[in-house]
Design brief:
This protein is mainly alpha-helical. It is about 60% helix and about 5% strand. It binds zinc ion.
Length: about 180
């Protein structure tokens, strides 16, 4: 994608999401997109190899994480959990530190899986609202799936078939929390 097209696409999707954010292009040979909860990052490889509607779906997925407040929520929830476990005197000496950290890792995993499904679902809706048609999220997941083959139960990302099947079986109406600033 040309930079001008990319700018227009990003405006379309972020306006559909009603999110004020910016897009950062990172040089990289892996097709990837991510967010720190504020900005959306995409690699040069992603924008160079995918058609506009699929780049839009990848960006919309990341906007889904921002709308869902996944990044700050997860860190806050895990800090609270850690604080609760360590402040519980009864657990001292019975459970080891490794066990506690292991439990937190599992909790992180669980939240992360849930967040991926949610971001897919919001992303699919945003892509549609931005005028790119439906089914773009599944298409994009399929397209980039080949690069991320190694999967385990504890992987932060659910497998592609799982994510696609969730997308296809989701109810028609989904609620999206949108906080408008007036
Ligand atoms: Zn994600």
């Amino acid at each position: 994608m040309e930079h001008e097209e990319l700018k227009k696409m990003f405006a379309r999707v972020s306006i559909a999401a009603r999110v004020k954010t910016s897009l950062v292009i990172v040089r990289g040979s892996q097709r990837n997109a991510w967010t720190d909860g504020k900005k959306v990052y995409v690699t040069t490889s992603l924008i160079e190899s995918l058609p506009e509607d699929q780049v839009a779906a990848a960006v919309a997925h990341e906007l889904g994480h921002i709308i869902g407040r996944h990044v700050p929520d997860t860190e806050k929830a895990l800090e609270e959990l850690r604080g609760r476990i360590y402040s519980d005197k009864k657990s001292e000496g019975i459970v080891s530190r490794a066990f506690i950290e292991g439990s937190i890792a599992v909790a992180r995993q669980y939240r992360s899986r849930r967040h991926e499904f949610e971001a897919d679902s919001i992303g699919e809706t945003l892509t549609k609202w931005a005028g790119y048609g439906s089914g773009k999220m599944s298409e994009t997941l399929n397209e980039i799936a080949s690069e991320h083959k190694e999967r385990s139960v504890l992987d932060s990302h659910p497998t592609t078939p799982e994510r696609i099947s969730k997308l296809q079986n989701q109810p028609r109406k989904i609620r999206i929390r949108i906080i408008r600033k007036t």
